[in-house]
Structures are given as C-alpha cells and as structure tokens.
Description:
The protein is an all-alpha fold. It has helices at residues 2-33, 36-49, 61-77, 87-103, 105-108, 114-152, 160-197.
Amino acid sequence: xxxxxxxxxxxxxxxxxxxxxxxxxxxxxxxxxxxxxxxxxxxxxxxxxxxxxxxxxxxxxxxxxxxxxxxxxxxxxxxxxxxxxxxxxxxxxxxxxxxxxxxxxxxxxxxxxxxxxxxxxxxxxxxxxxxxxxxxxxxxxxxxxxxxxxxxxxxxxxxxxxxxxxxxxxxxxxxxxxxxxxxxxxxxxxxxxxxxxx
Length: 198
C-alpha cells in the first residue's frame, strides 16, 4: 500500500523538488562565498534563536527533530493552497541554507574544506533528513494540484480525502521515522565525525 502510494503519488514529483533544491543550494553557496562571515553569523543565530544549538555549540536533538518535523508538516499543509505549489518554496529556502553552510563552511567549521563538510557534516544525517523533506514536499505539491483540480471541478480528478488518509499514514510510518533517525545521527555521530575530520 505504502509502496504504491509512493510510486503513483509521490515519485513523479521528486525530480522537480531535487532540481529546485540544487538550484537554490548553488545560489546560496555563491552568495555565501562573498559574505562568508556574515552568513556564518546568520546561520549560527538562526540555530541559536530556535534553541537548536546552545552557547557551547551543542545540538539539542529533540529540538532539532521538532524543527525538521515542523518544516515537513508545513510542506504538507501548504498543499492545501491550490495552484501555487508552495512546498517548492520550502525546498528553495532549505537549498539556500544548505548552500550558505557550504559557502560559509570554512568560517563555520574552522577552516574545514567543503568536501569534508559534505562527507562528515551533512551526508551522515542528510541521507535520512533530505529524503524525508523531499517526500513531505512531494505530498504537498500533489495535494496542491489535487485541491486545484477539485476547485476547477476538473473531469477525472483524483479524490482528495483518500489521498489525505494515505498521506497521513505515509507521513507517520515513513517520513516521521526518517526524521527521528536523522536527528539522532546529527546529534551523536555527525559531531564525532566532524571532530575526527579536523
């Protein structure tokens, strides 16, 4: 059931989501390269303001999980707004932040080269976190299209209610566990790997 939901409803939107993320990651990276200290300070403040990172630089795993969960839920809920496909905006913002981390990486990590930031600082938890956010955005984009079709009373449109039911199940059984795993890795394994890489 979940596999069919993924193949038929989610997978068709993933490529466009990844493309948006990549484009804005590049934009964020290029912008941060010329403003690395300011961007580094902005990123630190962003995580500190959300209480994800304390003054000692330690990551609060639960708050990190809640932040990522909020982003995923927002991506889905924006799907109730028809025609605009607003979950792409969430991906664009995430891409810009990731690009900012890459661009300001040397400042943020004490001179660590970008490949080490990617391999040791992002990849371990990113292999769970990013796909989870992609899947949530795909649900939102699909939902936005379906709501738009319902408003326009398009012939042959997909019924919205069964989709929402399946989406809730998929979110709970697939996306939520991926975000939990990502938060655990980011608070335990990622800091150790970054310390080893320095």
